[in-house]
């Protein structure tokens, strides 16, 4: 049963109990480029209280560096080593977990941020934002010459998705491949994306056509998978017993926190609604704490 936070004492106790605060981004800090009211004040409060603040997002459209640019533009203090995105986790997974040989390449369905992280990790890739792939022209298989070096396909949120990208990825994932089957990777599988003015199809909806056509699931790297936490552990010392994951989506953020042995705080400013956690159709994923918005944490100062 979740503890529904309400009093200043509740929030003060949370502020006292946890030293490291991991924040999901979309639906917790902002919707698109619109900050959630009170979010900045709470982040400043946590920093004044010498808390460790980390940002852990499944949004693979931006690299850690370009997220730093977004934080700066929004006037939110953040440092690159505090930012962990699924594009970064995917690049680390390809370079350090599957150890893709340097002479091999990745076919990318995704955007600039994913390409930047792959480049920073020394992973060769094609596709992505290449104008030749960003086309609505019909795809002619007879004209397609697959690059024999491709040994993995990675699929992230791609707002310029099209039939050419899906067809090339499908070809790479079904061609006989000298090094065994081509890896099928997803940066994350969120079904929807909480954009500024409402919901849009998420990264999971971008890889879904391939899953259906192939009858094969990708290895998903973002939350709730451990890979993201392993990337954080490699860079940040934190005590799981005194760490809390704050998120808006039960099957990514809350599961991620639970898998990592962290406390979990669900906020209702993003994907999850009251009906998802109470009543007859409530989810079986139960966060430790629930509150309306991270802005509520400010009440904790009064409660001290
Ligand atoms: O579709 C997606 O990729 C996700 O919905 C989105 O980017 C989630 O980002 P997060 O809530 O993990 O910051
Ligand atoms: Mg979110």
Assembly state (oligomeric): single chain
Q: Gyration radius, to the nearest Å?
A: 20 Å
The gross shape turns out to be: elongated
Q: Number of helical segments?
A: 11
* Biggest sheet details: 7 strands, parallel
Number of strands: 16
Any low-confidence stretches, pLDDT <50, length ≥5?
none
Mean pLDDT: 95
Gap from first CA to last CA: 26 Å
Widest β-sheet, arrangement of strands: 1-16-15-14-2-5-6
Structural class computed from helices and strand pairing? alpha/beta
Question: What share of the residues lie within helices?
Answer: 25-40%
Beta-strand residue percentage: 15-25%
Ligands bound, unique: 4-phospho-D-erythronate, magnesium ion
The SSE order reads: EHEEEHEHEHEHEEHEEEHEHEHEHEH
Keywords: Hydrolase, Magnesium, Metal-binding
Cofactor: Mg(2+)
Binding site for substrate: 223
Protein name: 4-nitrophenylphosphatase
Report on the structure:
There is one protein chain. By secondary structure, the protein is α/β, with parallel strands linked by helices. Helices cover 34% and strands 20% of the residues. It has eleven helices and 16 strands. Strands 1-16-15-14-2-5-6 form a seven-stranded parallel sheet, sandwiched between helices. The longest helix is centred in the first third of the chain and has 12 residues. The chain is elongated. The model has no long low-confidence stretch (mean pLDDT 95). Bound molecules: 4-phospho-D-erythronate and magnesium ion. Magnesium ion binds next to loops.
